[in-house]
């Protein structure tokens, strides 16, 4: 439980901040019915699924899993944690692939691990809707015939937008870390950058859908 005093401190830190940035992870989407990657989910070992090796060696099975996961994930909707960040206009750097920050209305979102609801051409990088995976067993690019891959960063690939994330955090005077311990490389460096710059740091691991609306209430920073 978070004490009332701690909430007041956080509220003041938010109110006094000029450049807050949120870094979010799987925990923020758990109240939306989505899993953390450490768990098996709907019979699928997510750690095994999210590897480049699996995609390259067993592409058909990879797409079977992908369609199975999609059916469930596309029902997920943002919760009050996503909405309160959007309403406050706080830029978000997320490790999540669920697209819920954008769906909640956040306009400045860096999806470090991509977006499950998109497919990307492995040849020309064109983007397609995930719905194509229901129409083609192995989805192909309409312009170059390249194999499409879910637009998510798999184990063995580099995260997206990392340079921009470093820029954002470099300018931040408050870092809100929500639903992630921020221990994995390279994202753990973001925390180090914020600390070095003397930014205030707020960590919310549980019940973000209750706590964030409380500490972010007040006027918009946009
Ligand atoms: Zn292509």
From TrEMBL:
This is protein acetyllysine N-acetyltransferase. PANTHER family: NAD-DEPENDENT PROTEIN DEACYLASE SIRTUIN-5, MITOCHONDRIAL-RELATED (PTHR11085:SF10). It comes from the Bacteria. InterPro entries: DHS-like_NAD/FAD-binding_dom, NAD-dep_sirtuin_deacylases, Sirtuin, Sirtuin_cat_small_dom_sf, Ssirtuin_cat_dom. GO terms for molecular function: histone deacetylase activity, NAD-dependent; metal ion binding; NAD+ binding. Residues 1-222 form the Deacetylase sirtuin-type domain. The keyword Zinc applies. SUPFAM superfamilies: DHS-like NAD/FAD-binding domain. Its EC number is 2.3.1.286. Keywords: Metal-binding, NAD, Transferase, Zinc. The keyword Iron does not apply. Zn(2+) binds at residues 121, 124, 141, 144. It is an enzyme of class 2 (transferase). The active site is at residue 113. Pfam families: SIR2. It comes from Effusibacillus lacus. Coiled coil: none annotated.
